[in-house]
Amino acid sequence: FDFTCGAAVFSTLSPNDFCSTVELKVNYFRPLDSGDVLTAIGRVKFRGKKLCVIHAELFRKGDKNAVAMASATFNIVSGK
Question: Can you give the pTM of this predicted structure?
Answer without folding.
Answer: 0.88
